[in-house]
Every structure is written in structure tokens, then in C-alpha cells.
Design a protein that fits this description.
66% of the residues lie in helices and 0% in strands. It is an all-alpha fold. The protein has one domain. Helix 3 packs antiparallel against helix 15. The model has no long low-confidence stretch (mean pLDDT 84). It is found in: Membrane. It is a multi-pass membrane protein. It comes from Citrus sinensis (Sweet orange). Belongs to the nucleobase:cation symporter-2 (NCS2) (TC 2.A.40) family. This is Nucleobase-ascorbate transporter 11.
Length: 432
């Protein structure tokens, strides 16, 4: 965790510099829908080996969950309840609550009780062969497999450096820098699509840079607090805006306040920890599929029938899946079943690249084991070297600074909140 913290902080500083110095504005000229579409799609496809293999460990929970969310989202999406399309808007939370309750009754009813076997004993400590066979099922299906509810405090205040002083290594820092670049490319497509969904003009390159810089700043805070993940644009929110027709800042701010408040209540995390792993994996099958679809939808801004674009997207997606599969063959032999998101780091220590520097070898092997990194690299090189007209490539058209000054509606959409503006103005005056 301490090394992960250090890597997140370094990658986030790079992203902040990319945004706040304006370098992202220059980089935007090279990022087009033909680059964004396969890169975002690869983020979802990267987890295909984790989705149903985990969900399939408890099919009596996962299959009803997948079917229910698809029925709500597709077949019942037009049904109105009290004037609201509840099934379309709340397809995921409704289906999760129903199947979660169903899993609770299965657990309480003894469906996963095996004679002489306890779900509280770690699988590595189980001695009985019969219990070893059932340990995997109990871990993925039961709602009480986590003892978080019994051990979690009601009030817990998160604080910085809770895992200790971050450790900074070149190998993991290089990985996180490239990953932050992938996240920035993902955000560019999301910014552009979201602006069109709310019937606004696209942001200016300066505003995009500001957004990327703020993502980096928030990720620095995440690294200091030891969350284990950075802060990035959630691509699925494009779908959320589309189906709810809500894109208000107030809604986002209110949601953020709730999340901050809940972070102080330990029992909230304990409740979430009781979600069976098979149920969580089945929901992620839907969410990652949505990411793939939203990523590919960026091709609507291009001439999708163009052989140039078809070849670039196809080659980048295929190589983005195939090259990492080659590198992942080198992960060390182990009896443990590693989740797909750990495989690149397992392969990094034993990969085919040998430059003479262990730190550099680790970074290159790990990066080439990541689907989204390879996809971005291939798509970026091909799209910016293969000849094609602006219309064919579907170059993103961003607003100009003059538009922001002359259009009051555009300024209202992208200006900072008043209190934040006052803080920045005071800082500038003090600096002057």
C-alpha cells in the first residue's frame, strides 16, 4: 500500500502538471475520437477474464442479477411509474437490492452451510479436504463472509498517511504516470460527449486542461489518504446523464457531500462489504460492458465506414488484447488464482523485456501487460501517422476562448463557482 500510495502521488503530480501548465491543450490536438474510442473500450474489455469467471462461482446469484439488470434496463425501460421511468433510471440499484436480499435469505436459510465448515476460517487454514472444496463457494456466495460488521467502528475518521510514509519507486511511478495519461484520454472523450448531452458547446482547451489538472490534484489527495485508487472521470456517468436528464452541479455536489459524510461511518462500509463477491462481479459485467459501448460510441463523430478508421480501431483493439496476453504468459507459476487486474504486476517481475535495469524492466513489462496502455499506444501512433482528412478522422472541435467571452451561457456552464472564484482572486492579489 505504501508503494502504491507513492506511485499514485507521482502519477497524480504528472497529471496536475499536464493540466495546470497547459500542456494538455497541446496534447488535445493529437487526441481524436479514433484514439479515444478503442482506448476507453479497452478499459472495459481488460476485465473480461475477471467478470463472469468470478460471477460464475455462484450462478444462483449472478445469473439472476445479470438477467434482472438487463430486463430493467432494456425491456422495462419504457414503463413509467408515477411519471418516472424508474426501471430505466434505477436498473442497477433496484436489481442489486433484490438479489442482495435474495442472497441474504439463501445464507440465513443455510444454503451455504456445510457440516464442520466455518466461513470465518481463512481458506489457507482449512485442513479438511471436504471444507476446502466448499471454501470457494462460501467466500463468493455468503453475505456474512466478511466480519466487517462486527469489527467496524460506528465512527472512523480517515486521515492522511494512515498506512505510513509513502514509498517511491521508479518502477511503479512510471506505471502510474502512463496510467494517468490513459485516464486523461478517457476524460477528454467524456468531457466532449457530456457537453453535447447537455446541449452545451464543447469546453475550450483551457477548460479541459483545468479539468485534467483538478483530477490530478484530487488523485494526490487520494494518494495521501491511502485510498488505493486515484480520482478520475467516471465514463458511466455519460450514460447516467443520458437516462436521467440530470446534469446539475448541485446534484454532483450533494452526492459528494453524502460520500464524505458516509466515509466517517464505518458501518456503511461494513454493509457494502457484505455484498457477495459473485453479486459484485455480475454487476461489474454490466458496468464494464457499458464502458465498452460508451467508448465505441465516440466513433459517431468520425466517418465510421472509412476503411482507415475501421482498420485503426480494429488493429488497436486486437493488439491491445493480444500483446498483453503474450506478456502475461510470463507471470510466475503459483497455486493462487490471481484477479485479472493483478496479472500485469505478476508478469512484470518475470516478463520478456530485459534492459539491464530491473526497475525499467518491471515498468515496461507491466505496462505492456495492460490492455488499455497498448491500445492507446497503437491507436495514437496510427491515427497521427496514417493520412486522413479532418472530416474522416472526426477531429474533436473545441470552443475557442473568444466564444467563452462572448457567449454568456457558455461562461455559465464552465465558470468556477463564485466562492471558488473569490478564493482564486484573493490568491492572485496576495501573489501580486
Amino acid at each position: 500500500m505504501r508503494e502504491l500510495q507513492g506511485a499514485i502521488i507521482v502519477g497524480s503530480i504528472f497529471q496536475s502538471i499536464l493540466g495546470f501548465t497547459g500542456l494538455m491543450s497541446l496534447f488535445l490536438r493529437l487526441i481524436n475520437p479514433v484514439v479515444v474510442a478503442p482506448t476507453v473500450a479497452a478499459i472495459g474489455l481488460a476485465f473480461f477474464s475477471y467478470g463472469f469467471p468470478q460471477a460464475g462461482s455462484c450462478v444462483e446469484i449472478s445469473i439472476p442479477q445479470i438477467l434482472l439488470v438487463l430486463i430493467f434496463a432494456l425491456y422495462l425501460r419504457g414503463i413509467s411509474v408515477f411519471g418516472h421511468h424508474l426501471f430505466r433510471i434505477y436498473a442497477v440499484p433496484l436489481s442489486v437490492m433484490i438479489i442482495w436480499a435474495y442472497a441474504f435469505f439463501l445464507t440465513a436459510g443455510g444454503a451455504y452451510n456445510y457440516k464442520g465448515c466455518s466461513p470465518d476460517i481463512p481458506s489457507s487454514n482449512i485442513l479438511s479436504d471436504a471444507c476446502i472444496k466448499h471454501a470457494y463457494t462460501m467466500k463468493h456466495c455468503r453475505t456474512d463472509v466478511s466480519n466487517a460488521w462486527r469489527t467496524a467502528a460506528w465512527v472512523r475518521i480517515p486521515y492522511p498517511l494512515q498506512w505510513g510514509i509513502p514509498i517511491f519507486h521508479l518502477r511503479t511511478s512510471l506505471i502510474m504516470i502512463i496510467v494517468s495519461l490513459v485516464a486523461s484520454v478517457d476524460s477528454v472523450g467524456t468531457y466532449h460527449t457530456a457537453s453535447l448531452l447537455v446541449n452545451s458547446k464543447p469546453p475550450t482547451p483551457r477548460i479541459v486542461s483545468r479539468g485534467i489538472g483538478m483530477e490530478g490534484f484530487c488523485s494526490i489527495l487520494a494518494g495521501l489518504w491511502g485510498s488505493g485508487t486515484g480520482s478520475s472521470t467516471l465514463t458511466e456517468n455519460v450514460h447516467t446523464i443520458s437516462i436521467t436528464k440530470v446534469a446539475s452541479r448541485r446534484a454532483v455536489q450533494l452526492g459528494a457531500v453524502f460520500m464524505i459524510v458516509f466515509s466517517f461511518v464505518g458501518k456503511v462500509g461494513a454493509i457494502l462489504a457484505s455484498i457477495p463477491q459473485a453479486l459484485a462481479a455480475s454487476i461489474l459485467c454490466f458496468m464494464w460492458a457499458l464502458i465498452v459501448a460508451i467508448g465505441l460510441s465516440n466513433l459517431q463523430y468520425t466517418q465510421s465506414a472509412s476503411f482507415r478508421n475501421i482498420m485503426i480501431v480494429g488493429a488497436s483493439l486486437f493488439l491491445g488484447l493480444s500483446i498483453p496476453a503474450y506478456f502475461q504468459q510470463y507471470h510466475p507459476e503459483t497455486s493462487l488464482i490471481l484477479p485479472s487486474y493483478f496479472v500485469p504486476f505478476a508478469a512484470a517481475s518475470n516478463g520478456p523485456v530485459h534492459t539491464g535495469s530491473k526497475q525499467l524492466d518491471f515498468a515496461i513489462n507491466a505496462l505492456m501487460s495492460m490492455n488499455m496502455v497498448v491500445t492507446l499506444l497503437v491507436a495514437f501512433i496510427l491515427d497521427n501517422t496514417v493520412p486522413g482528412s479532418r472530416q474522416e478522422r472526426g477531429v474533436y472541435i473545441w470552443s475557442r476562448a473568444e466564444d467563452l467571452a462572448s457567449d454568456p451561457s457558455l461562461q455559465a456552464d464552465y465558470s468556477l463557482p463564485r466562492k471558488v472564484c473569490r478564493c482564486f482572486c484573493c490568491a492572485r492579489r496576495l501573489g501580486a
